[in-house]
Design brief:
The protein contains 13 helices and 15 strands. With about 600 residues, the protein is of the alpha/beta class. Strands 1, 5, 6, 7, 8, 11, 12, 13, 14 and 15 form a 10-stranded mixed β-sheet that branches. The protein is rod-shaped, with a radius of gyration of 76 Å. Bound molecules: adenosine-5'-triphosphate. It is found in: Cytoplasm, Cytoskeleton. Pfam families: Kinesin.
């Protein structure tokens, strides 16, 4: 604790007043005798109360102001005031006693005042002590409050930091709360939708149970139906087999080589050309007669009658032709080798009959056959047959084979070879064979082959008329259930124009054509006569068609003729050749069906 000063600073300031009084006193004392000085000291040290009493009992004589005695400047103002009020009698300078008394009185007053001041000092000291104590306690209290305030401030700072963090927390929580609220809403929606779904589920469960019951019933029905269906399938298979046998028996009865005649109509630009006389006698016979012979004097019968398996007049449509031909395609699907070829002079309508014109209505035998095959594939599949169809296109020109699916200029060497030692099946070496999955696939290949044939025809003028064109469709069928398998070939041939050598300047080509056609006729005749040797190998055409012309096959020939009088001779030749073919009856065809081990 700091040392407390004896006097407060305010009192210290008053002290000079006291010292001034003392100085004044000292000045007064210097002029006194020793006795007066003693009395003065005695009085001066006497208590103030007595002095007051003395002053009251002995009134001080009024002192005269002297010029020699300096007025006590340091006398307190109070005394001066009193002096002013009470006018003391003037003391003569020589009256030292009076003066002494006066001074004594003054001393007494001063002494009293001093005592008063001392008392006051004590009083003030006490008060000062009290105040000091109060100040100290206030300071201590202030320090304590200051410390408290500091602590409070610290706490406040901390609290405000906490408050800030809590505020952030609150914001975060608010956001969380908002999110939670939206989630809660979502949950509410989901809950309500879930409730709906649960209801739906219950309903569905009921439906499911009901359906399951129905399913069980249906399953039982299916089992029964399956048994019935299997039985039906067996019946169907038997019926299909019977139908096939019947169909082919009918065909056998009709003959395995069947010939149809088709007369093409004159085209618009040919309308003015003279026509020979053609009479359709019935569905299978025609009568032809040259105009110039009508009024001639030549003897002999001018009319020539021909009978075939059917006649297609100039009004017959492509559909009419195919309705007859389709039986042959059906035979190929039944597992027989089939050959359909168009014979006739150039421009008689062979290509139109085999390939057709533009538009589905004008489709010829080849596109219609492939359409039929792909339509029947579905039915056969239902009966357990899986079919694979492969196609190849070739051309025989001047006894050389050309691959029409190969557009390269440099053709490979193509030879006709035997598939097996029996020689029942043949193939052409290096010939492109493509699998077709749809009619569209096949038509695309057919158009490609036609383009190739036309390109070759442009290089080699009129080659298309002077070559045999062959479209080969190979059908392979497997019935895994019955472990049966068959392969059949459907050969669709557009033969070269059959006009005689006299009417053409292209002798080399004609020689080849005539040779192959005459070889064809020889083969047919040999077959007709049941000869032991059939000269198939004498020409590429007969060699290639061997499996389709021989015993195990069905052949259909369409002899195409036109009605122009100028072509009458060639027409007669064609009709005679066709009649020869028609008279030929091959041995009963056999189906290429085999059993195999899986
Ligand atoms: N039945 C028919 N109805 C309408 N037009 C036909 C008929 N037959 C043929 N034609 C048309 O007659 C023309 C000659 O026919 P096509 O080309 O088929 O004869 P082709 O015998 O094949 O001749 P080539 O031996 O020169 O190939 C063609 O324009 C063809 O469209």
């Amino acid at each position: 604790m700091s040392r407390i000063p004896k006097y407060p600073p305010a009192l210290k300031e008053n002290r000079p007043a006291l010292s001034n009084t003392r100085n004044a006193t000292r000045t007064l004392v210097t002029g006194l005798s020793e006795a007066d000085k003693k009395t003065l000291i005695l009085n001066h040290t006497r208590p103030a109360r007595n002095a007051t009493v003395a002053a009251a009992s002995v009134p001080a004589p009024r002192m005269k102001r002297s010029a020699t005695v300096p007025a006590p400047s340091a006398v307190p103002n109070k005394v001066a005031k009193i002096e002013k009020k009470v006018v003391a009698p003037r003391i003569p300078p020589y009256d030292f006693k009076a003066r002494f008394n006066d001074l004594s009185e003054k001393h007494k007053v001063i002494k009293n005042e001093l005592c008063e001041l001392k008392d006051k000092l004590v009083e003030v000291s006490d008060e000062y002590e009290k105040v000091k104590e109060a100040v100290d306690s206030s300071i201590a209290e202030r320090d304590m409050w200051k410390e408290k305030v500091t602590n409070t401030m610290k706490e406040l700072r901390q609290k405000s930091m906490e408050y800030e963090s809590l505020k952030i927390d609150l914001e975060f929580k608010n956001k969380e709360n908002e999110e939670l609220q939206s989630k809660a809403k979502l949950l509410e929606t989901m809950t309500s939708s879930l409730t709906l779904k649960t209801l739906e589920l219950d309903r569905l469960k009921m439906e499911h149970d009901k359906l399951q019951m129905e399913y069980k019933g249906a399953l039982e029905l299916i089992t029964t139906s399956k048994t019935d269906s299997d039985a039906m399938q067996n019946i169907l298979n038997t019926m299909y087999t019977d139908q096939r046998i019947l169909r082919n028996t009918v065909q056998d009865l009709k003959g395995n080589i069947r010939v149809y005649c088709r007369v093409r109509p004159p085209l618009d630009f040919e309308a003015s050309k003279p026509l020979y006389n053609l009479n359709v006698l019935d569905a299978c016979s025609i009568e032809v007669e040259k105009i110039e012979l009508l009024n001639s004097a030549r003897k002999g019968k001018p009319q020539h009658t021909f009978t075939f398996d059917g006649i297609f007049t100039p009004h017959s449509t492509q559909e009419d032709v195919f309705s007859e031909v389709s039986q042959m395609v059906q035979s190929a699907l039944d597992g027989y080798n089939v050959c359909i070829f168009a014979y006739g002079q150039t421009g008689s309508g062979k290509t139109y009959t085999m390939e057709g014109g533009s538009g589905e209505d004008n489709y010829g035998i080849i596109p219609r056959a492939i359409n039929m095959i792909f339509t029947c594939i579905g039915d056969l599949k239902r009966m357990g047959w899986d079919l694979t169809i492969k196609a190849s296109f070739l051309e025989i020109y001047n006894e050389v084979i050309y691959d029409l699916l190969n557009s390269c200029k440099d053709q490979l060497n193509h030879e006709i070879k035997m598939v097996n030692s029996k020689g029942t099946d043949l193939y052409v070496s290096n010939l492109k064979e493509e699998e077709v999955k749809s009619s569209h696939d096949f038509i695309r290949l057919l158009l490609f082959a036609q383009r190739n044939r036309q390109t070759a025809a442009t290089i080699n003028n009129e080659r298309s008329s002077r070559s045999h064109s062959v479209a080969q469709i190979k059908i392979t069928a497997i019935n895994e259930k019955r472990k049966e398998k068959f392969t059949s070939n459907l050969n669709l041939v557009d033969l070269a124009g059959s006009e005689s050598g006299k009417t053409t300047q292209r002798m080399d080509e004609t020689k080849h054509i005539n040779r192959s056609l005459s070889e064809l006729s020889k083969v047919i005749l040999s077959l007709q006569n049941n000869q032991s040797h059939i000269p198939y190998r004498n020409s590429k055409l007969t060699h290639l068609l061997m499996p389709s012309l021989g015993g195990n096959s069905k052949t259909l020939m369409l002899v195409n003729i036109n009605q122009f009088d100028e072509c009458f001779g060639e027409t007669l030749n064609s009709l005679r050749f066709a009649t020869k073919v028609n008279s030929c009856r091959t041995v009963k065809a056999k189906k290429n069906l085999t059993q195999y081990d899986m």
